[in-house]
Design a protein that fits this description.
Pfam families: fn3, Fn3_R-PTP-O. There is one protein chain. The chain has 6 domains: 85 residues, Immunoglobulin-like (Sandwich); 98 residues, Sandwich (Immunoglobulin-like), CATH 2.60.40.10; 88 residues, Sandwich (Immunoglobulin-like), CATH 2.60.40.10; 92 residues, Sandwich (Immunoglobulin-like); 97 residues, Immunoglobulins (Immunoglobulin-like, Sandwich); 85 residues, Immunoglobulins (Immunoglobulin-like), CATH 2.60.40. The relative contact order is 0.07. Strands 17, 21, 22, 24, 25, 26 and 27 form a 7-stranded antiparallel sheet that branches. Strands 10, 11, 13, 14 and 15 form a 5-stranded antiparallel sheet that branches. Strands 16, 18, 19, 20 and 23 form a 5-stranded antiparallel sheet that branches. It contains 3 helices and 51 strands. The protein has 698 residues and is mostly beta strands. The longest helix is centred in the middle third of the chain and has 10 residues.
């Protein structure tokens, strides 16, 4: 019944080993503790003792969350050791130091991203214990799929406030069919997070003419719900600051004449009814009122306008707007709905209704363009209030005659652009039969303009988006690339954009290509470009027979970046003498794919031959033998444009002799006793070159 030796782990990660009386076998024996678990084993000997047990052995464990095997060894007088017994202990992992919680962007309604920070060196753990309150229910779970301290939860409920979120590192070890578990402490600040609620469903709006005679009768059709009067309409500002004085409430925006609400709140006293809105909703009779009274800033708006001269009211009959929706899909936790009403893009009203309200009625007293959106919000609990994403924004237009124009949802299909000329193009598309009477907006943007430096831009008209009601696109620039988007329009309402269509205008090419020879091996090309045109670069190419590869093909010689200059030139060197060349200059655009023009901008030229060199002159039996060389040792003239040699001896009379190009010697019959000036000329179709003259006395 005696206790064996004791092993304990202190908070400072020290392992304490105590020897008990039942472990003492003989006073002559030595008692040693073996501790295994790290990369090497440690041995500690208890102090010698007689009647009193020795002091405990203290081992400072390096690793947190690692299991250690502590073995008691008894060594007798013959130095024979015997293992008495072993105990396994598990140290506690170090705690998490910091926690961050983010929305999981693909699904913020059900997913969160956890990021935890903890000491990594000498800290071992197998799983993470996550504890939190899900509303009023406590949850805890073990999770192991953390990668670099991050993991994604994608099974939370939408709109719920999750509070007191804590993380504990858990270390586990199994030894002799028993499992040891140790949890780290909680040192980080507990977190809270509210998931995003789902948006309402099936949002729809109707515009009805108001019949004053049966208005009350119409209201009574909804006996199970009461109209939302001024006591049931709440602005966001007022709900956020219920104790603030009226002067601290944000001022009303300038939408004071387009929505009308009956005003019978006692808070207003005898102030006149605001002239710009009326709203109603339905809830069960006797239900607790959800929202506070309308803001005082409506009264201020009336006060500011009461002193002005009354203008003649426009001939517009108010209409009734009925906005309906269904609650978000379950299991969303939510506390109400936000209604956002925007008129003419500069006047906005933000209203809040209770969670069991699914209908909102308002009287619109002014024509114009309206945008409506309904979102869900969740506010219960200690977490911050969060609203849903806007599932759908409704747009409509009320004309001055009271006509209701619904939101355009159709986008033009099969948009095509046909290039008519270098400066004009025609856009076409298809639409449904219902939309055939709608007008359109054709939006054109140059994709080329943004690729050029501003100082080098050769076009400027479509550098920013240009909208037109005509399908004919004018003022285009040759060489530019454009993007066209088409919208359907009905009144001031604009539908969704079509798929963008890209088209390019082929450049017009250069003009006045001119060649200036600079001798047998070099030329200068010069050209002009049209004033109207945009391009990326000039490409200078040449075509000739290459004696090295024995092929003839077009090869790029040089590329010149585009500039605003109307004239450009380039020097081409290292040409073969007496050789046929064809030169071409094209303009290449910025588009993708690139367009170029034009292959017809070419000029051909035969380079001049080099001058031959007379090497020997001999006179024998009234015959003059002349020999010469051309362009180095043994040139191959089989592909040269050399035609023949012209040998001239000029004395008292002038003697000429034509020699074929493959022969570089000639014999002239000359009488003795005269002085001649000898020369040899290399001749091509378009030019010639004469050797240095040589004076000969016969």
């Amino acid at each position: 019944s005696a206790e064996p030796f004791q092993v304990a782990v202190r908070e400072d990660n020290c392992i304490i080993v105590s020897l008990e009386a039942s472990d003492v076998v003989s006073s002559s024996s030595v008692y040693v503790v073996k501790i295994a678990g790290e990369s090497k084993n440690y041995f500690f000997q208890f102090d010698e003792f007689n009647s009193t047990l020795p002091a405990p052995v203290v081992f400072n464990a390096k690793y947190h969350g690692l299991y250690y095997i502590v073995t008691l060894l008894v060594v007798n007088s013959n130095m024979v050791s015997k293992s008495a017994r072993s105990i396994t202990v598990l140290t506690k992992p170090l705690p998490v130091s910091n926690v961050s919680i983010y929305d999981y962007k693909p699904s913020p309604e059900t997913g969160v991203l956890f990021e935890i920070q903890y000491p990594e060196k000498y800290n071992v753990f197998t799983r993470v214990n996550i504890s939190y309150w899900e509303g009023k229910d406590y949850r805890t779970m073990l999770y192991k799929d953390f990668f670099k301290g991050k993991t994604v939860f994608n099974h939370w409920l939408p709109g719920i406030c999750y509070s007191n979120i804590t993380f504990q590192l858990v270390s586990e070890a199994t030894f002799n069919k028993s499992t040891l578990v140790e949890y780290s402490g909680v040192q980080h600040e507990p977190k809270q997070h509210r998931t995003v609620p789902y948006p309402p469903r099936n949002i729809s709006v109707q515009i009805l003419p108001i019949n004053r005679n049966n208005w009350e009768e119409h209201s009574g059709n909804f006996a199970e719900e009461s109209f939302i009067g001024p006591q049931e309409i709440m602005r966001k500002e007022k709900s956020s600051h219920p104790s603030e004085s009226p002067t601290e409430i944000p001022a009303a925006n300038t939408s004071a004449a387009w929505l009308d609400e009956p005003s019978n709140s006692s808070e207003y006293g005898t102030s006149s009814q605001p002239s710009w809105w009326s709203s109603e909703a339905e809830s069960s009779e006797g239900e607790e009122e959800f929202v506070s009274a309308a803001s005082r800033d409506y009264e201020a708006t009336d006060a500011n306008t009461s002193g002005r001269a009354t203008a003649e009211p426009p001939p517009f009959l108010p209409v009734q707007m009925v906005l309906t929706w269904l609650p978000p899909k379950p299991p969303t936790a939510f506390d109400g709905f936000h209604i956002n009403i925007e008129r003419e893009e500069n006047s906005t009203e933000f209203l809040t209704v209770s969670e069991d309200t699914h209908k909102f009625v308002a009287e619109l007293k002014e024509p114009g363009k309206y945008k409506l959106s309904v979102t869900t919000f969740s506010s219960s609990g200690s977490c911050e209030v969060r609203g849903s994403q806007s599932a759908k924004t409704l747009s409509f237009y009320i004309s001055p005659t009271g006509e209701w124009i619904e939101e355009l949802t159709e986008k033009p299909q099969h948009v095509t652009v046909t290039v008519l000329s270098s400066t004009t193009a025609l856009t076409s598309w298809t639409a449904s039969h219902e939309s055939s009477g709608n007008s359109t907006i054709v939006s054109v943007l140059s994709l080329t303009c943004q690729k050029q430096k501003e100082s080098q831009r050769l076009e400027k008209h479509y550098c920013t988006e240009v909208n037109s009601s005509s399908s004919l696109i004018e003022n285009l620039v040759p060489g530019a690339q454009y993007q066209v988007v088409v919208y359907l329009r009905k009144g001031p309402l604009v539908g969704p954009p079509s798929d963008p269509v890209t088209f390019s205008i082929v450049p017009t090419g250069i003009k006045d290509l001119t060649l200036y020879p600079l001798g047998p091996t070099a030329v200068v090309l010069s050209w002009n470009r049209p004033f109207l045109g945009v391009f990326r670069k000039y490409v200078v190419e040449m075509f000739y027979f290459n004696p090295s590869t024995m092929t003839s093909e077009w090869t790029t010689y040089y590329e010149i970046a585009a500039t605003v200059s109307l004239t450009a030139s380039v020097r081409i060197a290292n040409l073969l003498p007496a050789w046929y060349y064809n030169f071409r200059v094209t303009m290449v655009t910025w588009g993708d794919p690139e367009l170029s023009c034009c292959d017809s901008s070419t000029i051909s030229f035969i380079t001049a031959p080099v001058a031959p060199k007379i090497t020997s002159v001999e006179y024998y039996n009234h015959l003059l033998y002349i020999t010469w060389t051309y362009g180095g040792d043994g040139p191959d003239l089989s592909h040269s444009r050399m035609l023949h040699w012209m040998v001239v001896a000029e004395g008292k009379k002038k003697i000429k002799k034509s020699v074929t190009r493959n022969v570089m010697t000639a014999v002239l019959s000359l009488p003795p006793g005269d002085i001649y000036n000898l020369s040899v000329t290399a001749c091509t179709e378009r030019g010639s070159n004469t050797s240095m003259p040589q004076l000969v006395k016969l």
